[in-house]
Amino acid sequence: MGCLIYLVGASGVGKDTLLAAARQRYPEWLVAHRYVTRESGASENSVSLTTEEFMARRRAGLFALSWEAHGLHYGLGVELDAWLARDRVVLVNGSRRALPSARARFGAALTPVVMTASDEVLRARLRRRGREDEAEIEARLSRHRELRDALPEVPRLDNGGPLDLTLAALERLVDGEVMA
Question: What SMART domains does the record point to (predicted)?
Answer without folding.
Answer: GuKc
